[in-house]
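It is worth pausing here to work through a concrete case rather than discussing structure prediction in the abstract. The textbook approach is simple: state the sequence, then state the predicted structure, then interpret. We follow exactly that order.
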Amino acid sequence: MQRRQLRSVIKWGRNLMLVLIALIAAGWLAFVPSAQEPPYEFVSTWGDKGSAPGQFDDPTGIAVANDEVFVADSRNGRIQVFDLDGRHKRQFGAPGSGPGQLGRPMNLRVHDGRLYVAEYFNDRIQVFGLDGTPQRTIGKPGNGPGEFSAPGGVTVAPNGDLLVTDFYNQRIQQLTANGSFVRQWGTTGQIGIRGGELNYPTDAAVGPDGTLFVADGYNDRIQAFAPDGTLLRKWGGPFAINIFGPFNGWFATVTNVTVDGQGHVFAADFYNHRIQKFAPDGTFLVSFGAKGGGPGQFNYAIAAAVADDGTVFVVDFGNNRVQKWHQAASGG
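Step two, the predicted structure:
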């Protein structure tokens, strides 16, 4: 009798273990997706710490236009321009708050032949010609409509409106090209983790279909909104509710988001020292990078930009350099 009971207990324990293993496996598959695309390969790098042309002091943002790469060299208060192989071409800006001067430039966007610069210290967006000529500024310090508190990113909607990540005001503002307030996402000064709420947003990008992708930085997620402002989806960790981690599709502070011509979403995963790539619907595709100072390693990947041919340029913040990557051929 006792032996039968013992065998029954052992069988029950085995079945329970199998159920637990199945549940863990199902949870892993649900929340930690596998890569669906070929890996990216390191190509080259340029830059080191300093203030000479081609050197950086805390680079923070990047944009690509035609055959040029624009890099926000934040503590040097300037924008540096390179060719696609990293050769220095020109630079513009100097520390300050006057026209053409820069106060910690952050994420960059190029649209319709203009460079849009989010200025963290000057609480404004400054617009330049691609040759470096200052054209206009938008915004001023504050928490009212059209005012900013440490903007970290800016993008341009198909109709020319600006979408600005207003970091300390916990919101995204939509403004007309001349700075008139249209609407906002998030509640001014309030942090939240539910859909549509924000926790120190860092950047924004607009996809080919007009979808707005927001790097909800300290919520460790990306949120996607329709052109009418409706929340479409969010992703990053289980249920995208501020659960951070190192796994595929998870984040540890998102500092930049950019979209290529096919609608793929690239996100800078700062404390995980990598770039992650997603389909427009949030499906994880592939990631690249690891912590370190060697080729193909990052010391805080803070921003990325994608050229027309799919080449990815990454700002390697802690290593004061830019890295160039391309995707391996399928099956290679």
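Step three, interpretation. The chain has one helix and 24 strands. Helices lie at 2-31.
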